[in-house]
Design goal:
The structure is a homodimer. By secondary structure, chain A is α+β, with helices and mostly antiparallel strands. Helices cover about 35% and strands about 30% of the residues of chain A. Chain A has 14 helices and 25 strands. Chain A has a 5-stranded mixed beta barrel. A 5-stranded mixed beta sheet of chain A has the order 17-16-19-20-21, sandwiched between helices. In chain A, strands 4-6-5 form a 3-stranded antiparallel beta sheet.
């Protein structure tokens, strides 16, 4: 399914690198004949599978239950929440015909599932004993994007939207759930070795129908931030509209409070972009579809012994639960190295006649550490080598992020900073000042109350109007 | 989320039982406001998760790779294969609008993915070295059903369609893949403790665009068969249309041959229907969301010790990989037994003060075997108890199937036989005879060449025209 002709552009030319690595590493095929729709290659799907298994597990062990709601939402339900409609009306796909006849009520392809789920929540929630309700689903959602589309990042079919929805007795309990969700997402991205910035989106950029929106942003190599998760406190907007109420301990009817939070396949885009290098993908061990590739070095002598040694090594590593593959294709070793480096495999182990004689194997990590291992020690050492590799990936990403977060005290400095990363400025919170700031710098206000070890606290003068007592805000060019 | 008022109809009133058990056991919520669309409750989704994990694993280990193609198929592609269009044109949902504007090309919601996948296969397959190609995906598909809809059985959104698609160098290799798929499906249903009938569908009932269709049918308690899997040899119909060809070893361009095979959430309907009883679900151990439920019997004395004993038992069983839950709700034990029997939990373990004193626990299987186990032997015995329970489920289902397969030598006998099951008749293969047979008996010809240990071989006289040398065929009332 691949063509290894030509070569990968350097990652410094990020947009070209990204488009190219997707097919060279067999993540997505972009040749599907509809704009904004893409095909997951099996290797890419393997990456998706392991990534979403982590997410699923985090949700399962923290009291969420997986469920599945219909894709099709009747227009009558979809149109119930006014702000929500306004936020989505230009982006919704409509099914108008079934077979050869027109439908009585058009059906929306869910852009997100509030209006599919909440009429059911109204039936499910009756008493305080039913709360909190925490469910999630991993589904395809749709947006009629008119902007430039890009695989995994801006799609018409978001194939892998994990959306969680919760219902609580009080506003404060919902706010606590928002914090828990932020914790889960931080843990998730930590497993992907990705440092993130958490901030509270400005009001004009919050989810349609939310009290407030917390966002998780990652910094891509081209200096633009990618929103890789959002957590919304919905207050009672939707519970009012959909009549989600419960009987409290005293027998009184009370309106419920809600949250919702989501992560899409942008998490995969972040893994690809943030860790990749000039030779292709570099995958965190926990999500790599192939964690260890074994390359038998076949010469004339001892060919059978080398093959057998590779097979026994594979079985030993699989016994440790490691996803291991032998590449025994009839190609020169260099071509195989190139192939698996492109696919980001964390560890390569070479087994040749000399190794057999010496009782060793050669191990090379994807970031260039090469070592000779005693064959009898492989099972002991490989897990630690993979762990250490993951730690290095995380540290490297953390360092790069820290380097590109730059405090700026005037607009020119802010403009310069967001050429390569994130500018930290003081902003008074006034929307007009934000407009001026965005216009002057050509960036966007990500949000306030930024949680990052790389950003301190402290008040200062608004970068636009100079008002003292303004708080720290991050701005960046965004995807 | 449940209401345990009223009681479950007896399974002899199957249609009422089925509708009721779906919500009482929290499998599906049927109150979603669009006909033919339903909501998976978390418990039902757990059953789906474990069932599809088996299916996924069977495909993975037999050389299939998981992938994911878009839901939306442009009309231009969809309309390319003439027979295929004819088979689906009355059932396809069409997306005609994106946001506020009309689309240039309407988009079909996939009823199945041939026309989404095969244009890509044409790009993926170039040389004989690319073959065989074997991929699968588990996705939602759509049919605008005008008939009576029914959860898990006849849906407008099939939420869980596992479709596999393969490409081969020759017709024979594709035929061999058909056999392999039948083997996988038989294994899958064996894991669900469900005996199936495999047969070759008559030509008028094959998949639109197939050379032939093999079908997997299960027999439901009301005597109707449920098609729970199909395997299609597509010949070169689609490879001609979509230009899927390869260069053979001699450098010649050759047309490829294809197969596809699918299983939907009907597999869950079969699990529910075939094993259920008057008290609710009876779930095979491999797919039960809760395999063991522990009921602490809380009295005044030793309440804390009982709670601690239940917790330590749970941890021990989870250590064996068993999905275990403690029901410590403030309800009387009888209400808890009822609750978990309805949900089909294979094994219930009761721990009370008397058990603590005696060093035992009471174990009761869902099919009514009750025993006292030495507490120290629980880890040794529970896995074997679950295995034996699964064996009994399978045997019970096998016996019931065998009893309801009845040879019939005249139309009256065939009519009578299909009131409760499947009639085995001789049929000459002539379509007119089949029409008469179906009309007279009010049944359908399932197919020929039936593979079942309950059906022998041997030729005979056609049940309609009397022609000698006719082969065995099964007929039944179908879902």
């Amino acid at each position: 399914m691949e063509d290894e002709s030509g070569s990968l552009p350097p990652i410094s030319d990020f947009s070209a690198w990204y488009n190219d690595v997707l097919w060279r590493a067999e993540i997505m095929d972009v040749r599907y004949p509809v704009k904004g729709l893409y095909v997951w290659y099996p290797f890419g799907f393997g990456l998706r599978r392991h990534t979403y298994a982590i997410l699923r597990n985090l949700l399962d062990v923290s009291g969420h239950e997986e469920t599945l709601f219909p894709l099709l939402i009747p227009k009558t339900e979809f149109m119930k929440e006014a702000e929500h409609i306004k936020g989505f009306e230009e982006e919704v796909y409509w099914v108008t015909h079934g077979g050869l006849s027109e439908l009585d009520v058009p059906l929306a392809l869910r852009p997100t599932s509030e209006t599919a789920m909440y009429p059911m929540f109204a039936l499910w929630v009756r008493s305080h004993a039913d709360l909190p309700l925490r469910v999630y689903q991993i589904v395809n959602t749709f947006r009629y994007e008119t902007k430039h589309t890009r695989p995994l990042i801006r799609l018409r079919e978001i194939t892998s939207f994990k959306e969680a929805h919760t219902v609580h007795a009080t506003w404060d309990e919902a706010a606590a759930q928002v914090e828990e969700a932020i914790g889960l997402y931080t843990q998730f991205y930590d497993d992907l070795c990705i440092p993130v910035l958490i901030s509270r989106r400005p009001d004009w950029d919050k989810f349609p129908g939310a009290d407030y929106t917390m966002a998780v942003d990652a910094l891509m190599p081209d200096g633009r931030t990618l929103q890789v998760g959002t957590v919304h406190h919905l207050g009672d907007h939707f519970s009012l509209t959909f009549d989600i109420a419960y009987e409290d301990a005293a027998g009184e009817r009370q309106l419920a409070y809600q949250t919702c939070y989501g992560i899409s396949e942008r998490c995969i885009a972040a893994v690809i972009g943030i860790h990749g290098d000039d030779r292709g993908l570099v995958l965190p061990p926990k999500v790599a579809p192939v964690q260890v590739v074994i390359i038998p070095i076949i010469m004339k002598k001892m060919a059978e012994e080398v093959r057998a040694a590779a097979e026994s090594l594979k079985q030993e590593l699989e016994g440790l639960g490691l996803r291991t593959r032998i590449d025994d294709r009839d190609l020169r070793p260099g071509a195989k190295y190139y192939h698996w480096e492109m696919r980001g495999v964390p560890l390569r182990i070479e087994v040749g006649p000399r190794d057999l004689t010496a009782g060793t194997v050669v191990a090379a990590t994807r970031d260039g550490e090469k070592m000779s291992l005693d064959r009898t020690r492989v099972s002991d050492e490989v897990p630690a080598i993979l762990d250490a590799f993951g730690v290095r990936l995380r540290e490297r990403a953390e360092t790069r992020l820290a380097e590109r977060i730059v405090p700026a005290s005037d607009l020119a400095a802010a403009s310069a900073a967001i050429e390569t990363g994130v500018a930290v400025v003081h902003w008074c919170g006034d929307e007009q000042c934000a407009e001026a700031l965005e216009k002057e710098t050509n960036g966007s206000v990500l949000g306030t109350g930024v949680r990052s070890t790389h950003i301190g606290g402290g008040e200062g003068n608004c970068i636009v109007c100079g008002r003292p007592g303004s708080t720290l805000t991050v701005i960046a060019r965004t995807y």
